[in-house]
Structure formats: C-alpha cells, structure tokens
Amino acid sequence: MASNSTVPIPVVATFASPFDTDETDVQSLRPSSRKRQSLWPGMYNSPVTAALWDARPTIFEALLDPPFHAPPQTQLLTKTPSHSRTSILYNFSSDHTLREQYKNPWNRVRIGKLLEDLDALAGTISDKHCSDDDTTTRPLLLVTASVDKMVLKKPPSVDHDLQISGAVIWVGRSSIEVHLEVTQSTNESSNTSDSVVLTANFIFVALDCKTKKAVPVNQLSPETEQEKLHFEEAEARNNLRKRKRGGDRRDFENGDVNRLEALLAEGRIFCDMPALADRESILLRDTCLENSLICQPQQRNIHGRIFGGFLIRRAFELAFSTAYVFAGMVPCFLEVDHVDFLRPVDVGDFLRFKSCVLFTQLENPEQPLINIEVVAHVTRPELRSSEVSNTFYFTFTVRPESKATKNGFRLRNVVPATEAEARRILERMDAESLLLDKDETGQ
C-alpha cells in the first residue's frame, strides 16, 4: 500500500492500569485512556472499536439507529482510496495496560485479537467509502463476505509499537475490497519492507438496511500507479471467485481414486488391526477438538449480528489449541487461507466450532507444517437444524527453538478413517498446490 500522510488513530487501553495511583497525573498524561466508552451498551467492544468510534462517531451513530423510513441513497459518488484510508496505532512501547491486553504467554501479540481488529478496521474503512454524508438517507448495511489468504511474515512483538493501515482498493456493483497492512518497526531494521508483518484483503457486500437486498455502492477512482495495480489485482481475484463459485467440489476420477485408496489403506489398518498400525501416524478423528457457545448480545456488531472478527478469533484460538495438543510444543502460526462467510450468525444462536488436524507436511524437517480445519456450525435445537457458517483453514509450524525436535521428536502423519475424510484431505491438498503454483507464476 502506498505511503500516505494519514494520521494514525491511537489505540489505548480500555482498562485503567492497576499501577496508576494518581488520577490527576494519569489524566494529564493519557486523557483518552479514561474516556467514557461511546459504544452502545452491550455491544462488542475492544480497544480498537473504541478508538474507531471516538474518531468517527457520526458514521456509527447513524448505523446504530438507522432511519428505516428515510429514502435510500440515489446518487452514487466517486471516491479515491485516500477518502477511506485509515490507520490505527498501538502504542505498546508506552502503554503498559494496552500491552497487557494484547500479550500472549510467550510475550508476543495475540494473533487472534489482531485478526479480530483487522475485521473491525476493514468494516470502518468500507463504511467510510460507502457513506454519502447525508443524514436524510438511510445508511447501508455492510457485511463481511470473505477474507483472502493472510500470511504472517514474522510474529509481532508486544514490546514495539504496531500499526495497521488500510483503504478500499476495489469496488464492484455492491462489493467492496479493503486492503490492510500490519507493520512493526524495530531497532533491528530500518528497511520499510522488513517492517510488514501481515497483509490481508477483506471483501464486503453492501445491503439495504431495510430490504436486506444488495445495492450499488460508491465507485472508486484509483489515482497512483500502486492504487491502479491494486485495483487490477483485485479485479482479477473477483473474476476468479466468480469462476470458482459453485465449482469447488468435484468428482474424483482416474488417478484421484488411487490417491484416495492410498490414503484410506493406513486408516483401515488403524480401524481393523490397531496393534499393527504405524506408530508414526494417527487417525484424523483422534486429533479433533470442539467448543461451543451461546452467542450473546455483547458479541454483536453495530448491525446487530455477531461480529465477524469475534468468529475469526474464536476459530484461530481453537486451531492454535489443536495444533498445540497435536505437536506437544508451542505452534507458530503461518497463514489462514481464504475464508467465506456463508451465513450470518445472530444473537442467541448456538455456535459450535469443530477442529481437526487435516494433514501434515513433513518433507522439510526445519519447518514441518500442520494444517488445521475449523468448521463453525450454527445450531438451532428448537428447529432441529445445523448449518455451516464458516470453514477456516489455518497453517502452523513448530518453532525452531522448540527443542523437542532436537531430541528426535517427529510430528505424526494424519490418516483418514472414512472416504469422506479422505476426500476432504485431497481437496485441501489440491487447493494448497494450486495456490502454490499461482504464487510461483505470479498469476
């Protein structure tokens, strides 16, 4: 993303530090940290959502109580990426309490909270682009449709300031794509490219808040060469998504049948002759973890639905736990693949997250890969129904400094016990290979 002069919005702790004893001194040094929460009572909030609210309260106040009987926006505007460009800054180096809110047990930034904040910022950016600044028209309802593959280039430290910047880079008729960059500079390197920790693209769909139907959005006019390149790349991704829609699943033929049988062969030994099974392998079903929750009002977003970032965080934390239990050592997150939000999640829904190690890649002993699948189910017992809301695919490795590996420890190979499990594994392996080929060719 091109550099810009946008002043970052400071993110401050949402709790008072227990080490602050002088109220006057604290307020004079950090008055914003003592601000009354502006968010609607009970709504999901975090340091980032509070900061975004305080920076642009007029947009969010209109969304909280939309004038349903007001007319829709009739004239579309044309905006540049700079109109929506927004940055937030985590002052980890100076704000002890904020640092404590984001620190994990290994003195790194909690990746789940970071993914959650990315969704919150992307939503604000899309709202800024779609706003017509006219209080007499009803605002649009923007929902997260999907998230493109996110790759963590290096684990962010909780001891150095962290910044997230983003802008709208592409729009279709009712779709919006937001590009985000997470950067962190340390004393070790002054190279700007080395400061990039993670990049992500979020796709939103605009709906009329009254009719819930897709509606046109303000158009985008890229100005710089980099903005034009971002637009072209996003256009290509959108065309690819259209071609893939409805065609993800396929029939297995010829060589695929042989691969399927090869995968199932070891699984049958586990099921029929467990004493003779390979001790270096484990059944997929024996790697599973699950958790569930009732979706509460405190987890809803400004539109009344469960906040998408909350779902991403819960899925990531279950995936991390699954990789941890499987590997027997602290896993290191590498990437999350493309995520589609298939259906919204509402307050009161019974949400179940089911995870498993889908397969491992052990060819590189320096960086063995653990591929985790997490499926979110919206279950409604009174209707006797259960639907998939999201499927997440996370990739982890083990830290090189985790020296259980030095003592000869080796990750197990995962094998399926059923044909359905074998198909899931092959489909995922093929998707990984396709993405790798595209990365290598630059297409």
By DSSP (H or I, 4+ residues per run), the number of helices equals: 10
**What ranges have pLDDT less than 50 throughout 5 or more consecutive residues?**
21-37
Overall structural class, as computed from helix and strand content, comes to alpha+beta
Which percent range describes the beta-strand content?
25-35%
What's the helix-strand series? Answer: EHHHEHEHHEEEEEEHHEEHEEEEEEH
Major sheet details: 13 strands, mixed
- The shape, in one word, is globular
What is the average of the pLDDT values?
84
| Percent in helix | 25-40%
Distance between the termini: 19 Å
Nearest-angstrom radius of gyration?
Answer: 23 Å
Count of beta strands: 17
Description of the molecule:
The structure is a single chain. With 443 residues, the chain is an alpha+beta fold. Helices cover 31% and strands 26% of the residues. It has 10 helices and 17 strands. The strands form 3 sheets. Strands 1, 3, 4, 5, 6, 7, 8, 11, 12, 13, 14, 15 and 16 form a 13-stranded mixed sheet that branches. A hairpin with a 4-residue loop joins strand 15 (369-380) and strand 16 (385-398). Helix 6 runs antiparallel to helix 9 (308-327) and helix 8 (255-272) crosses helix 10 (419-441). The chain is globular. 36% of the residues are buried.
Jot down its keywords.
single chain; 443 residues; alpha+beta; 13-stranded mixed beta sheet; two-stranded parallel sheet; 10 helices; globular
Give a brief description.
The chain has helices at residues 23-29, 47-55, 57-64, 81-84, 96-102, 111-130, 225-244, 255-272, 308-327, 419-441; strands at 9-11, 78-79, 86-90, 140-147, 150-152, 162-171, 175-183, 196-208, 219-220, 281-283, 289-294, 331-336, 339-340, 350-361, 369-380, 385-398, 413-415. With 443 residues, it is α+β, with helices and mostly antiparallel strands.
